[in-house]
Amino acid sequence: MPRNPWFETVAEAQRRAKKRLPGMVYGALVAGSERGRTIDDNMQAFADLGLAPRVAGHHAQRDLSTTVLGVETSFPVVISPTGVQAVHPDGEVAVARAAANRGVIMGLSSFASKPVEEVAEANPNTFFQMYWSGDRDAMIQRMERARKAGAKALIATLDWSFSNGRDWGSPAIPERIDLKTMVRMAPKVLPRPGWLWRFLKTGRIPDLTAPNLQPPGGTAPTFFGAYGEWMQTPPPTWDDVKWLREEWGGPFMLKGVTRVDDARKAVDAGVSALSVSNHGGNNLDTTPATIRVLPAIAEAVGDQVEVLLDGGVRRGGDVAKALALGARAVLVGRAYLWGLAANGQAGVENVLDILRGGLDSAVLGLGHSSVHDLSPDDLVIPPGFRLTLGGGAD
Ligand SMILES: Cc1cc2nc3c(=O)[nH]c(=O)nc-3n(C[C@H](O)[C@H](O)[C@H](O)COP(=O)(O)O)c2cc1C
Q1: Which of 16, 64, 303, 325 has a CA 20 to 30 Å removed from the CA of 178?
Q2: Over the stretch 124-181, which tens digit does the pLDDT of each residue have?
Q3: What was the pLDDT predicted at 182?
Q4: Where do the annotations place glyoxylate binding (predicted)?
């Protein structure tokens, strides 16, 4: 552990995560698919967009707050659901506490390692995320459980096609962790004793089960058991999306949209929000960066539903750019996972402070008093940057 656990950028949090986590856990967070073109473009595209600051007439007071699906947030960043286990013993509960301390909404994956009841208790502003997995009765039971726990919205993530294979190699993740597996994993884990020690101190070893998918009276499936159920479930139609939205009945976000025609169908299915997302570059490689396809989607449906974006956000300036191009808020994935790995709950708070500080600087430098005033006029947009998928030529 460095003498000063505070870090100044998300890049530094990632460096510390790499040092502290066993290679296979770090590799599972890096993720990405095939060549990694999409995961790279998600970040590169933010770097290619410029800012056009003003020099005087700045505002001493700046309002960064907004709402997402009717829930207040102190600034427009939402914790994106990640089904990641074994990063830290407090897992999603630590993330939820950090988010609550910073006035931020928590997105909880159904594949997470902590039960929705514990997470919603740590952060009352929790949105629960589901895939289209299992039969309808199981989906209803999972939604009812999340609703009873106090989840304020449902996120349905549909952009997954089980593509796998990474040119840089995928980590070998065990089916479940028992003593035999620990012995087998020892050579990979022992070079990172701090990580193991954090778990052993709590009297637990990393838990690779998905408690939010536990059937009533049954046991929680393993991560891979849950993945198997999902793979075997026939993919949803737009009528299924409508059914899910009706069964939930409350605020409903569809995550994974990249095409204008899909965005329009999502509106027809009655969603209240959508996230322009390519699953952080983990789905079909060579899908363009989300920030490139955001403007066309925001223009097409932004007056009917809330449009969010996720993918590649590592700085407050990235948040400002997404808002300037039509997003109401962004979701972040790896950024907070690096913080969690680097310094637990305080590391997630550190990451949220970095994003908030960077956004505030951008709003100040661009001469605005509120995040709602950001517009394309604040940006330098390279020729050919914007792409319209499924909505005519661009
Ligand atoms: C390790 C990992 C696990 C993820 N698990 C889920 C998940 O369970 N459910 C989900 O909707 N998205 C999941 N995602 C996608 C994120 O919610 C989000 O879309 C993505 O991380 C955004 O990109 P970023 O990491 O560049 O911020 C996962 C992403 C990563 C990196």
Answers
A1: 16
A2: 999 999 999 999 999 999 999 999 999 999 999 999 888 778 888 887 766 666 656 6
A3: 60
A4: 131, 166, 279
Instruction: Mark the ranges of the chain whose per-residue pLDDT is less than 70.
Output: 1-2, 84-85, 173-190, 200, 203-205, 207, 392-394
Residue 157: inside a domain, yes or no?
A: yes
State the CATH number of the domain containing residue 93.
Answer: 3.20.20.70
Cβ-count burial 330-340 (b if 16+ within 10 Å, e if not): bbbbbbbbbbb
Query: What residue numbers bound the domain in which 373 lies?
Result: 10-380
Distance of CA 38 to the CA centre of its chain: 16
Domain count, the chain: 1
Active-site position among 58, 59, 88, 279: 279
Atom of ligand 1 nearest to the CA of 281: 23
17 vs 26: CA distance, rounded Å: 7
Per the domain annotation, does 69 fall within a domain?
yes
Q: Is residue 315 part of a domain?
A: yes
The residue contributing the CA closest to ligand 1 atom 4 is: 82
81 lines ligand 1 (CB under 6 A): yes
* pTM score: 0.95
Expressed in angstroms and rounded, the spacing between residue 192 Cα and the centre of ligand 1 is 24
Long-range contacts of 195-203 (CB under 8 A, 24+ apart): 195/20, 195/21, 195/22, 195/25, 198/88, 198/89, 198/344, 199/89, 201/89, 202/89
Terminal CA-to-CA distance of the chain, rounded, Å?
49
pLDDT reported for residue 278: 97
